[in-house]
Amino acid sequence: MASKKVFIRGIGSYLPERVLTNRDLEAMVDTSDEWIVTRTGIRERHIAAEDEFTSDMATQAARRALGDAKMSPQEVDCILVCSVTFDMAFPATACIVQKNLEISTCPCMDIEAGCSALVYCMEVAAGLLQLGSYKNILVIASDKLTSITDWQDRSTCVLFGDGASAMVLSTDASGARAVLVDTLLRADGKGGDILFQPGGGSRHPASEETVKNRLHYLKMNGREVFKIAVRGMGISLKDILSRNQIELADVQHFIPHQANMRIIEAVAEASAIPVEKFIVILHRTGNMSAGSAGVAFDEAYRQGRFAQNDLLMFATFGGGMTFGTALVRWLI
Ligand code: ACO
Known about the structure:
Elements: E1 7-14, E2 18-21, H1 22-26, H2 33-40, E3 44-47, H3 54-68, E4 78-82, H4 93-100, E5 108-111, H5 117-131, E6 136-144, H6 154-157, E7 162-170, E8 178-187, E9 195-196, H7 208-212, E10 219-220, H8 222-243, E11 253-256, H9 261-270, H10 282-285, H11 291-302, E12 311-318, E13 322-330
Parallel strand pairs: 4-5, 4-6, 11-12
Antiparallel strand pairs: 1-7, 1-8, 2-3, 6-7, 8-13, 9-10, 12-13
Helix pairs in contact: 3-4, 8-9
The structure holds acetyl coenzyme *A (ACO).
Acetyl coenzyme *A binds near residues 39, 287 and 318.
């Protein structure tokens, strides 16, 4: 990472109020609590209200991160929002969040990189901060995955939930919680057809046909995603450690994408990491796509799980396929 340091000044997250349990799902599709828990570790997930959108959850998480940083919204000079369920194709959800926060004129943009997008946003924000044009960038990851969940497809609908997380990244060290050590991004477009939402874009614009064929819902080849996720996360975490000359044992906490407990256990086993080092909330939240890792980060922070000088590693994967890995040093 270049010479100018990038700090995390504030952290926040938001989960919608309504909880959908595995028992509730048993009444909706042919599944069981036992199947879901055994295959995924998920017991329940939060579901946004019908009139609660990705931008609303993003705004709530952003307010909490700004509160944590003791900053007013007016001190933000750029907003990045990542998601796979933006409010609309355009305008950018980041612009809607800017309006909600009553911030004027700062640049706003959306970034899509599947469930790895939080780390993608962290790298983009760090680059912008290091160029010197900005001082405080709001990085928000928010997903209303239930808006693209096919509630008739038991192989996917049991996996997902809604939620948002936010961070204030800054070149200003005052009150900083952590410092960004490095980020490493990867993608492999050949994996684009194992996790995707085909309908609604220029390839399959919305039509009676696309609705009839259920193309506006998330499609997934779970077994393939599983294999690529485990392999890709393992490679990325080794590479980021080796280029920073850090030993695996020197990382105190791993903050993975919260997709599936078996994926986390497989990564832990393949890389010989004690599974207790992974921060896991998916049993309560399901997979919230881009929002996932940040919510786990915020909850662990508020539980006081990080000690001064601890090294944290974000390890994410997502549709694309994409991979995002970040090293963060805790400061307080
Ligand atoms: N309840 C009961 N049975 C089910 C369910 C369900 N909810 N879903 C599938 N089954 C059945 C299947 O029909 C199949 O039955 P069959 O043997 O009679 O044909 C059987 O269970 C096994 O199905 P598989 O798909 O082979 O099950 P698998 O062990 O692979 O587990 C799972 C499926 C949990 C999806 C797994 O593949 C996985 O976790 N993959 C990774 C998924 C993931 O992480 N996705 C998120 C990625 S990115 C993002 O975050 C958006």
